[in-house]
Structures are given as structure tokens and as C-alpha cells.
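User: Before I run my own analysis I want an independent prediction to cross-check against. Here's the chain; please return only the C-alpha cells and, at the end, one sentence I can use as a sanity check.
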Amino acid sequence: MGELMTYGEIYDKEFLEKFGVYRDDVEEAELEKEFEVDVKKIADLCKIKVIEEELDVSGFCMNFHSAANDESSEYSTNTGKKEIRINKYEPLVRQRFTIAHEIGHILLSHEGISYRDTSYTIYKDLIERMNEVSANAFAAELLMPERLLRKALEKTMFELNYDTTQKFSDNDIDYLAENTAKKMMVSVESLKYRLKNLNIFR
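Assistant: C-alpha cells:
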């Protein structure tokens, strides 16, 4: 394994600011695996409880992430109590992204938004979509910070005998993404989306 890094070394200052009062604890914590962010450790540092339960898989992200009143959801989050409940039978990479996404909702304060305007309901759906987008962006950056992603990708290229200066075909990128995703314990789809957003191959 390579040198042990801290989370402060893999996240940029702007992202670290999103941790608020927990920033110092997160910044100083060590990355225990070379390329895998420990989302449960991050949750713990942010005083967020992660509870694994037997939940049905037919759920969706709850509106404003209030705790579910039934057992039909795949996961739910109570931002007031700072609790995330996940389905322990879901694939690990999905559980990890869900936890990262829900940490985003809690740290970005997506519950309890108040509006003086009585037209709140007109904007409710738009606000919820915006919250989902921002929580997804938070999760992608939490699990695949650019510095760590580039290091993992470089190691994958070295292991697979790729030249970093060569031109990469779509098949090359798919193959590299598949192997790098395993190192980072994320889905291939989310890693490919992150590569695209960071313009790493373009």
C-alpha cells in the first residue's frame, strides 16, 4: 500500500468547509485504505448514526429525508436525529453511495427549509430536485475526490500497462473505469460519470 494520507490531503478546502464544525475532525482523520473512503467513519466523525436494517428495495429518497413511517423504503434519513437507515442487503457500493448521499443532505441542511412566501408548494418539487442533485454531487466528491481518483487511475494504468500519454478509446476508458471503481469501492457508472465531470480524458 502507498503512503497513508489524511482526508485533509484528499479533499480541497471548499469541500472541507461543507463539514462545518466537524471539519477539523474529518481533515485530520487518516484514510485507512489506499483508495477507499470510509463513509461510515466520515458519518461517525460528523455525529451521524448509520443503521443497517432489513428494508424492501422498492424505495426512493424520502422528501426532505424525514424518517420513513413504513417499511417500504430502501433507505431513509432523519436529519433532526442525524440518522441514516440503509438496507443491509443492498450491494456494498450502493450502500456506500447512499450513505454518502445522505451525509450530504444532513450537512447541506436540506431539511427544515422555511419560506415566507405562501407559494412554497409551487417550488417544492424544484427544490427537492435541486437538493437531490446537490446531494449526489456531494456523494461523488466524498467518495471520489479528484486527487484520490487520479492516484487510483494512475495505479490502474500502471498495473494494466497503459501509457498515460496515449490516446484513450472509449473501450480503454471503460476498462480503466471498471478496474479503478474496484479500487475505490464505487460503481463503474458513478466513476465514469465522475471522470466525465472532471474532464480527465477529454
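Sanity check: The longest strand covers residues 49-53.
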